[in-house]
Amino acid sequence: MKKIILIVFCFLACNCSVMYGQSLTEIIKSHEKNLGKLRIYRGLDTESWKTTGDVSEYSLREILKSYNKNVAILIYAHHNDTLSVTLISEKGVVGQHNNNKITKEEIIDKIYDVNTLFSTHLSESIATIRGANPIDKNNKDSKLENSYVDLNEMLLPSVFNLENYSHIIFVPIYNIATLPFSAFKLGNDYLIDKMSFSIAPSLFELMVSKEINSNQLGGDIYSSRYNIVAYNWDNALFVANPEYPKNSIYDFQDLPGAIKEVESITETLSPNTFKILTGNKATKSEIMKNICDYDLLYFATHGISNSENPLEESYLVLAEEENNTTKNNAFLTVKEIMDIRYDCQLNAALVILSACQTGLGKSHEGGIIGMARSFQIAGASHILMSSWNISDIETSKLMVLFFNELKVANSLQPHESLRNAVLKYKNEINSDPKYWAAFSIFGAPY
Fold first, then answer.
1. In this predicted model, which residue has the larger pLDDT, 253 or 324?
2. How far is Cα 437 from Cα 446, in angstroms, rounded to an integer?
3. How far apart are CA 415 and CA 382, in angstroms?
4. Is the peptide bond before 445 cis (omega within 30 degrees of 0)?
5. For 109-162, what is each residue's pLDDT tens digit?
6. Cβ–Cβ contacts within 10 Å for residue 368, how many?
7. Could you give the 3-state DSSP secondary structure of residue 207?
8. CA separation for the pair 355, 338 (Å, rounded)
9. Rounded distance between C-alpha atoms, residue 342 and residue 338, angstroms
10. What average pLDDT score do residues 70-88 get?
């Protein structure tokens, strides 16, 4: 049976001029406008990203054909307090589902509730503000559960019978990208039991998918990339459990599982194909020195997300450098990652952020302003990111399974390898979603 892929576009286009019942063309224009605002916020130009061509119903259908699959597109749109979901196949628009009387703030709040519901909150491994007392969220359980049920039906309407598809690509706006879609339900099963999924940076990055498929496969846009994708690294960088700074407002707990995680992964690699930085060697200057030469970047450390000032206050935590008086020299910020593009283009086909909160950031009409997108702007193809504070020991088990899947079948895309790893972990180690649902693959092309 021919596989079916579902591509999801999340367009929550507030403050735009189109009216309720907006057409696909109007939704695309709203998305383009919001994406332009997002780039301005990040200090990027607003012209070069348009070079991939116009987006239309026809071009979207051509993108879907380039995967040689039966593909559907699910578009989210938000206007006048109505969340509408439009389903598109190769034949065009085939259905729409509307949720009335829900504001932007309510959507964002429900998404926060869902992430709180599934978060681990393991005090032995997460970064905490020094002197702060833990917050008891038990009295909110019913509200969190209700938000999960509500969003499940709003974002994945049962009338669409999505369980018939085999892959979903989300192109999110607001903070929808932070949701643990693996743990959402399709009927009585988790979504991850039925399909894989990935998250594209924007609708316009998907235009690159068709071009790459065509160029790498002799111009045949109806061929699949599955036969040419391979993850064999000649020069990989692994950063694990740095010597954490002592003068931060945060108390960074040691992550012994991160060391075991990297050792388990690298023991099967050729000795001259990777570099490991741990302890006081894992400094920002050492990592940034040759960062564009690596074909794999792997960070197993703490991550901090800040929704108010994501460019400067969201970062990966590294080791402090001796004789460096620069403030916060142990923090690799979102802005510093994004600005790598001024010196070079990342060569990494895959960036693994095995750290807390690397999928979070500031919610914007054009999507999340955070770490994952910054690596993509710097040139990385795919980024594995997390949506909450993750367990040190349990994450190491999942990441080893993930790498095993990448090696077993080089023709698999990373989202398929992640799904296989999650299923093995869920079925053989621990079925609790809080340990496996935080991770997703961000990036385009498919």
1. 253
2. 20
3. 9
4. yes
5. 998 899 888 875 544 455 544 343 444 445 467 899 999 999 999 999 999 888
6. 28
7. helix
8. 18
9. 9
10. 78
* Arithmetic mean of pLDDT, 43-64: 65
Rounded-to-integer distance, Cα 371 and Cα 177, Å? 12
Structure tokens at 160: 């669409």
The sheet with strand 315-317 has its strands ordered as: 303-304, 315-317, 331-333
Taking alpha carbons only, the member of 251, 258, 321 closest to residue 288 is 321
Beta strands in 247-324 (DSSP E): 250-251, 274-279, 296-300, 303-304, 315-317
Which pair of structure tokens corresponds to residue 155? 């974002």
Whole-model pTM over 0.85: no
Between strands 350-353 and 331-333, the pairing is unpaired
Closest CA to 443 of 380, 363, 393, 395: 380
Residue among 139, 134, 83 at smallest CA distance from 106: 83
- pLDDT at residue 441 greater than cutoff 60: yes
Tell the residue number behind the tokens 């504001």, with chain if given.
Answer: 103
Both structure tokens of 188: 């009585």
Cα angle vertex 178, ends 410, 407, to 5°?
10
Cβ burial, residue 377 (10 Å; 0-12/13-18/19+): buried
Tokens representing residue 300 in the block: 């197993």
Omega within 30 of 0 (cis) for the link into 433: no
Least Cα distance to 403 among 393, 414, 411, 392 occurs for 414
> Is residue 355 left, alpha or beta, with left meaning phi > 0 and alpha meaning psi from -120 to 50?
beta
CB of 4 closer than 8 Å to CB of 71 = yes
Here the tokens at position 9 are 């576009």
* 199-249 pLDDT, tens digit each: 877 777 776 655 554 444 444 433 344 344 556 788 999 999 999 888 777
Distance CA 273, CA 270 (A): 6
DSSP string, 136-199: --GGGHHHHHHHHHHHHHHHS-GGG-GGG-SEEEEE--TTGGGS-GGGSEETTEEHHHH-EEEE
Q: What is the Cβ-side half-sphere exposure of residue 69, based on CA atoms within 13 angstroms?
A: 21
